[in-house]
Amino acid sequence: MTRRKFNSDLLAATQQSVAHVSRVEKGDDDGTLVVTFEHGALARPLTIRLGTVSVDDYPDLGFFAYSDDDDIPAGISDLLVTLSDMTTKKSVIDVLRMISKRVDTALDTTQDEDVEMTDVEDDTDVEETGTDEYSSDDGFYGGTQQSRAIGQQSRLPHSGREINDRFIQDLQQAKSAGFKIAFLSDVTRHASECTFALSVPVSHLGLPDDTLEAWEIKSKEHMVLLCKYDSGYPSMDKFTSVSQNHPSTMTFAFGTCSTYKPSLSSALAAFNKNTRNSKTAEYGISNRNVLDQEAVFVQAQITSSVDNFVNSELALLLQNRLNNGVSWDKAKQMLQDQARAGHLRQSGRTLAGVDHLHGGEELEPAVSIAARSQLNIDYVLRSPDATPHLSKDQLSLPLIAAQFALRYFVKSTQYCLVCHRKTEHGFSSVKPAISLCEIINRTQDFVSKHPYYVVNNVNWIQCRYLLVQRRPHSNSSSSNCIYVVQDSKQAPEGPNGKILRVPMAALPKWRQITEKPGSPALQSTQASSSQMQDDNKLDDFGEIIHLQKTLAATEVSNEEESADTVIVKDDPTKLSFTPGTVNVDSLPKLPAPVWATDNGRKVLGKELKALQKLQAKTPPQQLGWYINFENVDNMFHWIVELHSFELSLPLAQDMKRNKVSSIVLEVRFGQQFPVSPPFVRVIRPRFLPFSQRGGGHVTAGGAMCMELLTNSGWSPVSSLESVLLQVRMAMCSLDPYPARLEAASRGQSADYGIGEAIEAYRRSATTHGWDIPSDLNMMNFG
Questions:
Q1: Which of 66, 107, 611, 648 could form a Cys-Cys staple with 41, CB 3.0–4.6 A?
Q2: The listed CATH number (3.40.1550.10, 3.30.360.10, 3.10.110.10, 3.20.20.80) that belongs to domain 529-779
Q3: What is the CA radius of gyration of the chain?
């Protein structure tokens, strides 16, 4: 069956009469149609959009359905959810007749039983065209009987504001942990339903090239966890309150994509069980353009196993971890013991030792020793920027789910792909025999050194080298050869007692660091160059900011217009801040530039007004930045304070120790703003430079090292609130090093100068290959 067959059947259907169907026409996309239903129980005609799962496989894979209408009766909503299971191998006219009959039945039932009407909205697009936004019943996309049951049970009133706040905070934690965030539906309009993605570059996982080749995964790709909820964002309590009669409140799909943001069509298809078995490579969706094909969400066999595991057992395992304080492996063992105990109780027998405490945490990284440090933090116990042992309601569900998926993906050779139990150490099918081994030379971290070397991390034992003694070669020079830095107290020796040096080139690429002994600056610069480029690329975090604006506006909509202040409550977890304590006379003062344009004035005036309104209505600790608007006499020159950092951050600890309550920034706008980005630099205090393992994306001259603030990453539609928040988040980042303040003896009290900031900005942008704004020289005044 082909596309021609579908078009022929559609033409025939438009010429036939079907009860309650007043109009049938071809949809905007290939393989879709729009059907209008009229019924006496409906206040107005109901429009339903139908689409083939794959037009090339029509009618084998059936149809999906959704509606633009906001007031769909519950019976019809349930029908749309289950349609894909009932329309396989049915022609267009057969599907229309079946829907007509079931709509008639559903509406009659609704009238008789007076069933409450429910809103089923989703702003997901069939394709990422960026134009027409369809509201659809998102439940059909991978919707199961479980998700429908949740939808029917979720009519109890709840605080949308509270749930949305929790969603924002959870995604902020994921962002701080190094994940990129992509929204595939408009959560700012329909907070009760959302499809979003968390992703991390494959290169951050530290997997060997041969492993990636065997799994058919490229190092330039992203590992993506798709998340979907359709009955409101679940709290941690709700997500972990699972049983046979209480299905999961969030569904997941785990796979790869060439970018951090998969195409909407391929993401939605991943949630549809019919398309997972489709013979087409892109889950049966063949009518996408070239750009869509570059962002296809793909599931391989290795990721499909993890996908099933996350959906079937994450909630139960997380419940065991939170209730008993155990590791993932112990939680899995407990789950199996509980299942076995239940089976034995049914048979009248007992299982000795089932109720014993499975205590003890594993002494191994959460993901992999070779992965980024932030990925190895156990986020069930803490957040990226907070102290350990958080309460359950402070944990980030998407972050925990993404780390859980990455853990079992990276360590898949250590676990059974069917039951996901950890394999025995002698499991020969996944652990090949080896003869010569290398033990990573970090003897200070060994469990024991006498009389035997004992390590507690299996990854430290690796088959690596064959030592060959060569004949001397005259005039041979190895001055350009870079060697692995060894433990000076336990240097390896060869047969003749000569110290062995291991060339860096002998290591796999993922372990190679271009470093010469005694050259920390070279190591820091080159090791982090590529990762900083990745970390600074934009994602959809601006959507979170927009959601915060929406929620803040909703919260204050009932307040008096004259209310200019908010009640400030101290947060013991954050550094205290008092507005207006900075000595204004010590800050740069610039006259209005003669080259100021009317467009620049208009945009900046609008931004200042929006920021002033937001600052007046938002608690300072929640906002994280402060502008003294009374001192803004030149709209092309702002002074901004960043404050209220989490006390668990090394930066906040340094600030508290040195009695510094805020980071003072200067923001200058050039002649071409908003086409070109603003110039953002730190005035005070001084930060530890990157060459000395200082982080926070602050250059040695005080300028911010962010692609967002160059022509390469800037967008004229970016809001300045978004800029301030992302600058603050960059300073909070712990990867590759946390931001630290320079010691007082090194001149911490001295401010950064504008000249050194611009020069540092140029060096940073040139190093990363970012485009420098042409009006940068105009910033160097005053």
A1: 107
A2: 3.10.110.10
A3: 30
